[in-house]
Amino acid sequence: xxxxxxxxxxxxxxxxxxxxxxxxxxxxxxxxxxxxxxxxxxxxxxxxxxxxxxxxxxxxxxxxxxxxxxxxxxxxxxxxxxxxxxxxxxxxxxxxxxxxxxxxxxxxxxxxxxxxxxxxxxxxxxxxxxx
Length: 131
Fold this sequence. Notes:
Helix content: under 10%
Order of helices and strands: EEEEEEEE
Number of strands: 8
Distance between the termini: 22 Å
Mean pLDDT: 91
Number of helices: 0
Strand content: 35-45%
Shape: elongated
Strand order of the largest sheet: 2-8-7-4-5
CATH class: Mainly Beta
Radius of gyration: 16 Å
Low-confidence stretches: none
Number of domains: 1
């Protein structure tokens, strides 16, 4: 379910390094807090260089019978080896991986988006049921 239609790429994350992977329980209790992890490059590493990197991840929730999509979080990655000494000589890298906690009252879809500075916007998702 692409929330931006034709402007978002998606594929199987096991063969495409840009697709964000959502890892969360498939079933949760109503209003129960649970951990959600987002990661780009789970099986195939994505480059993390000054020239080619993941800039940000976003997590959205689309209730099964809901009309609106809800933004749950937005996460920026700002260090990619930049330095006054030149590209890829900096002392810090941020990796495109986050963990957060969420609670839901209705079943739906968790949708992750990742932005690659060269290859644009990518999307992955996971269905989640609420009991």
